[in-house]
Amino acid sequence: MSVAELVPYDEALSRYEPVIGLETHVELGTMTKMFCGCLIEFGAPPNTSVCPVCLGLPGSLPVTNRAAIEYTIKIGLALNCSIATWCRFARKNYFYPDMPKDFQISQYDEPLCTDGYLDVTVEGQEFRVGIERVHLEEDTGKTLHVGGATGRIHGAEYSLVDYNRAGIPLVEVVTKPVTGTGSLAPLVARAYVTELRGLLQALDVSDVRMEEGSLRSDVNTSLAPIGAAEWGKRTETKNVNSLRSVERAVRFEIERQAAILDAGGRVVQETRHFHEDNGTTTSGRSKEEAQDYRYFPEPDLVPVAPPAEWVEQLRASLPELPAARRARLQEAWGFSDQEMTWLRNAGAIDLVAQTIAAGASPADARKWWLGELAMHANKSGVELSSLPVTPANVARVSALVKAGALNDKLARQVLEAVLAGEGSPDEVVAARGLAVVSDDGALTEAVDAAIAANPDIAAKIRDGKTAAVGALVGAVMKATKGRADASRARQLILERLS
Ligand SMILES: [Zn+2]
Description:
The chain has helices at about 10-15, 65-80, 185-205, 245-260, 310-315, 320-335, 335-345, 350-355, 360-380, 390-400, 410-420, 425-430, 440-455, 455-460, 470-480, 485-495; strands at about 15-25, 80-85, 90-95, 105, 115-120, 125-140, 140-145, 160, 170-175, 215-225, 235-240, 270-275, 280-285, 295. By secondary structure, it is α+β, with helices and mostly antiparallel strands.
């Protein structure tokens, strides 16, 4: 479907109600694979981290990785799920070269964690995203199709397969259908993946690098006429690997499906591929008929029955989760909801926290990160956290302003110089001679010159019209290239002319 045939977003939402759902795969950061002792190493040469178990050689037997079970229970607890007291792995049978065993060990009707939720806030509105299940499985190998134009198997001359990834523990977090989001659906989808990523990071169970595929989301979208009794047919956009793309994928599917429904057509239940370059999706594999994977309980593994005491120990060991941390920091810093939202959207919460820890006041830390530095990051198209300035630098500039050694204008110049790689704030101040001039000797000279050059204004002030003093302070600032201590200059002028 070409872009011209899409229904504009707002128009689509005036007639249709979206339902979204997300299935997120997370590679766990365990030392070894799910069912064998192979080390997990990103970027290792192809097929070097393999053994008879993960290659599925006859006679090899899997053993469950305890750390992977522990990580999964922690994720379930953090997502407010119930933890199964007894569950089994299942064989998902399918023939595809990325899984050398011709089946994948997964969980089917007995997931480890069920029925939880994660709250997200979008534009001041809170949405509770229900969690259907959190289950554990092993990742598949990676295939590389060579010779075709698209990198897909269609049109390829041959394919290469790397089994290093086969057997890495993979957690799948599946939401319940999310309804009632209306036009905020794309933002809710993005906010959910953002919050989930932050939670996984806080739990320290995965490196959650979307660009490297250790966290990837399948995004389900369906549309139905507003007020309809039934939901529409859903599509599943696979392996979306950036937060921005999650939002764009939902948005595009809404515009595309609305066009089909407007024309009296039928949305096909299928998987779709997302294209980063133009933000569109294209048809993948039909899901009109459910594939039969002939699941059955994995006979080579004992059931998983986490003792209640162990689960409680893990619950007690959970770190402070992102939502609780934000609430605590907001209270401590005295920021409004809106100010916290700005910080979050700018990815500045940790930076502000570190700047405050380095001695700045909350208001100053926020001012510099959301002001001067956010502007700079925007201009150069990078994240705030990748700017070449540290929270300690910002705290130092803020301290210099507070001590009267810098005014705001000079402080901005110092930060710019730090960003340009000229050194620490103190080095920049020394090298560029940027400190505020407040010593009376130097100031008096400038004050006298300003009075001599503006006899009319000086006369007014002598007559008691002290409001005119601003013009002379301005002249002093100009003469000192903005470095004068303005309040001291004002004092000196008034003393001279009284
Ligand atoms: Zn192995």
